[in-house]
Amino acid sequence: MFVRIPFRVLTCGVAVLAGLTIATPAVPATAATAAGRLAARPAAAADLPKPTLAYQHLDLPHGEWAQVYSDGLAEVFSPAGQTEFRHVPLLNSDASAGPASVGELPSRGALMADLSQDVPQPYASNEVVVVYNSAAAPPQTVLNEIGADKAQPMFATATQQRLEQMRAAAEKQTGGTLLDFPAAVRLHLRGTTSVAIAVARLRASSAVSFAEPDWTVTSTDITPVPVTATSAPLKARSLAATAGVPGNYTLTSSAQSLLNSPAVNAVPAFADLAQRYGQLPGQGETITNVSLGTLDDASTAASSVDPCRFDAAAFGPTTIVQNGQRYLDLPTMPLIPTYTASSAGVLDPTGETCGDDEQLTEVGLDFSMMAPLPDQLQRSGETGSGLTDLLGIAPGANYRLVVPAAHGGAITDVDAAFIAAATQSPAPDVITASLGFGLDQEGLASRYLEDDPLTSAILTAITGIGIVVCVSAGDGLRTFTNAPVSPSGGAVATNAVASWNRTTDFSDIALSSVPSRDLDSGAIDVGGTTLNDIFTAPPDNLANSASAYLQAYPATRFNGARNYSSGFGSRVNLSAPGDNVLSFEHAFGGGPDAITEVTEGGTSAAAPQVAAAAAIILQVARLTGDGEFAGHPLTLRKFLVKTGSPVGAVPESDLPISVGPQVNVGSAVETLLARAGVVPQPGVARVAIVQRQQNSALGGGIHTATDPANISLTGRLANVDHDRA
Predict the structure, then answer these.
(1) Domain containing 274: what range?
(2) Residue 680 belongs to some domain of the structure
(3) What is the mean pLDDT of residues 457-481?
(4) Which H or E run includes 689?
(5) What is the pLDDT of residue 29?
(6) CA dihedral 458, 461, 463, 464 (to 10 degrees)
(7) Which SS3 state, helix, strand or coil, does residue 287 take?
(8) Whole-number Å distance between alpha carbons of 538 and 558
(9) Are residues 531 and 616 in the same domain?
């Protein structure tokens, strides 16, 4: 579904004409979990059939309801008798299988999720974040002027002490001064002064070292497209089998071609670890996913007073609770414990939250990349079949999910979730986050999470205590736009600088196309690449002969799925496929283990792939007695960069698009084994043939499930191309 599709609100600035209430358009907005799902508008009105009533009555929270027309117009009715008109963007992009001339409405669940949301903003309308100079008292006069009526420390007192230790350790390690994030305070404003003016006045005070809005964070996933039955052949055969290589359908059929070479090349890790150590990739390591999403259960829907009752009843419960712990209960995967993090950074193992990503599109994507188990290890009653028989890159790892207890994606709540995840006992080995600032809701490029100085300081402290952190680089423009997208593809560069005085001010550049300049926190900034790409630099063109084997290029709005553009720049360290990958989302109205399979992508898909690779390297280093990586995230990052595969240049771009090398799990594992004197025997772990089969006219939507004995040369496009991986 399209979680939080941005809609245009038509209820501000009303004018009256001939007895009718006509509303003037407001600024386009998007909601908090995924900004900008739309890739194309319908064709000219003269070419379209007359709109019809598609949904007569959709229940919404707080007694509201809506009716929706086939052209995307939605009328939302309140219990007080007010009517609000909204426009729901239609689904029709080159990544979808829909008709080229007529847009399609999102699913019923997607519409309900989208229309349930308040009008979102780039930042909270009544909050600012401030850090006072340690030697100064809060500037009471300024606080009175801006209408600050409440001050709340960001972190609990007990947590603050731990954070001070983390900050001191990071400063010692980096040799620089870190923003005093443990002392950060949220200020609530009465509304007499705008956030922008409040921030400006605070910054002008000598008692304040830092002030900013409470920015809104979104997930960085892209438009999910439901998988159809025709996306898979009737059968699939592996041309070669090796001990330790799982028999999951999506691997043997190459439906998950990201597992193959020249993509992530995960298969050698399965073979090497099984044959030499009897282990699965990732075994013994813990990966925590910090994300946004709804966590509720069957008891929520049954309660008449639970604030999340509507979400659980309408969308179906997303989790189960057993023995005082809440879990994700997804097919093919182990039970994954979930936690909510309070605004003070305190974890709750049974915490409930709602209002963000009711169908867990982002969460499902993240874990679909990492956690699905080999066939023989999947839980009874929760096995995969056909295209739902996914295989994760690190299925042996332990997993956790941490989401903010408060919905809405405020950066302060996300920062608290990071702190809670990092300080949990036992500590995670790897943290991954597919989050960023979804400013493409304003028609501008989304931004990298570390553009926020407070978040950057927190991630620096987390890597400083030895935890590997992977963060998605951002997806540029995901929204529909009539404006021409630049040849660089719609994203804005994020570049690394060495000192604070050279960084850009996020408050100044957020709503612009100015490149970001950030300090390097030590986290892995992960870009997205195209998958089985034979179009960016066609191999039959002799000019591309030197790069024909790569099949991976930085994702832009004019290659790959064509509905996002990977973040790029000198700050981006590594990349992984973010193009047409298979994943799960919670099925609308279903139980906790009910899923809809979709093709997804973006740097949201790339970050967890690199997190899984990092966990595998930590595992192999531990097994071989190599102490170079444990507790040293920067060293591990450099190793993954060194063993990665080259990513081709985009010939059409007007400037270099650097997303770093593409992570190569097999190369990294075998390099590490060789360092320990364990020389793999020459051989081929698996032979795979991949047919790139197009689901859309221009090739943005593809599927790759292939039966090597039955490769069809007919279909929508007779001249189909074949890739051999």
Answers:
(1) 225-230+237-675
(2) no
(3) 91
(4) strand 689-691
(5) 36
(6) 170
(7) strand
(8) 14
(9) yes
Amino acid at the residue 641: V
User: What's the number of CA atoms in the CB half-sphere (13 Å) around residue 679?
Assistant: 2
Contact 487, 652 (CB under 8 A): yes
Query: What are the two backbone dihedrals, phi and then psi, of residue 683, each rounded to the nearest 5 degrees?
Result: 170, 175
Region of poorest pLDDT, from 72-86, 115-129, 430-444, 471-485: 471-485
Structure tokens at 192: 């007499």
Provide the token pair at 50. 């007359």
Question: Quick one: 289 and 160 in the same domain?
Answer: no
- Are 440 and 479 a contacting pair, CB within 8 Å? yes
Task: Classify residue 203: in a domain, yes or no.
Answer: yes
User: What are the beta bridge partners of residue 594?
Assistant: none
| DSSP track, 69-89 | ETTSEEEEE-TTS-EEEEEPP
Residue 418's alpha-carbon distances to 186, 233, 338, 370, 548, in angstroms, are: 17, 42, 14, 19, 41
Q: How far is the C-alpha of 597 from the C-alpha of 232, rounded, in Å?
A: 13
Is residue 481 over pLDDT 50?
A: yes
**Calpha distance 67→305 (Å, rounded):** 27
Peptide bond into 262 cis (omega under 30): yes
Residue 42 neighbours by CB distance under 10 Å: 17
Residue showing tokens 């900004």? 35
Q: How many beta carbons lie within 10 A of that of residue 396, not counting itself? A: 22
- Write the CA distances from 253 to 34, 388, 390, 494, 706, integer angstroms: 31, 12, 11, 37, 5
Contact call for residues 121 and 29 (beta carbons, < 8 A) = yes
Name, in order, each residue with C-beta under 8 angstroms of 205's C-beta and a sequence gap of 6 or more.
139, 142
Calpha distance 618→682 (Å, rounded): 24
What does pLDDT average to over the chain? 86
Residues 96 and 139 in one domain: no
Name beta bridge partners: 286. Answer: 398
* Strand (E) or helix (H) holding 15: strand 12-17
Could you give the count of Cα atoms lying within 13 Å of 281 in the half-sphere of its Cβ? 35
In this structure, the answer to whether residues 156 and 293 fall within a common structural domain is no
Q: What is the C-alpha radius of gyration for the chain, rounded to an integer number of angstroms?
A: 25
Per-residue pLDDT at 10: 34
Peptide bond connecting 426 to the previous residue in cis, omega within 30 degrees of 0 = yes
Q: Are residues 324 and 463 in the same domain?
A: yes
**Do residues 393 and 110 touch, judged by C-beta distance below 8 A?**
no
Closest Cα partner for 5 from 92, 95, 86, 114?
A: 114
Same domain, 505 and 560: yes
Separation between Cα atoms, residue 611 and residue 366, nearest integer Å: 10
Q: Confirm whether 426 is domain-assigned.
A: yes
Q: Which pTM does this prediction carry?
A: 0.89
Contact 607, 471 (CB under 8 A): yes
The length of the chain is 725
Distances (CA, A) of 629 to 421, 429, 593, 671, 703: 20, 11, 36, 14, 37
For the record, the structure tokens of 51 come out as 């709109």
Lowest-confidence segment of 252-261, 530-539, 593-602, 679-688 by average pLDDT: 679-688
Among the listed residues 603, 575, 553, 579, the one whose alpha carbon sits nearest the alpha carbon of residue 447: 603
Model pLDDT, residue 115: 87
Average of per-residue pLDDT across 58-74: 90
| Among the listed residues 28, 35, 5, 29, the one whose alpha carbon sits nearest the alpha carbon of residue 103 | 5
Calpha distance 629→430 (Å, rounded): 12
**Which H helix or E strand runs over 529?**
strand 524-529
H-assigned helices in 59-188: 108-115, 140-145, 157-174
Contact 338, 328 (CB under 8 A): yes
How many domains does the chain contain in total? Answer: 3
The Cα 258–Cα 575 span in angstroms is: 12
Q: Is the pLDDT of residue 233 over 80?
A: no
Give Dmax over CA atoms of the chain in angstroms.
85
- 642-685 pLDDT, tens digit per residue, is 999 999 999 888 889 999 999 999 999 999 999 999 877 777 77
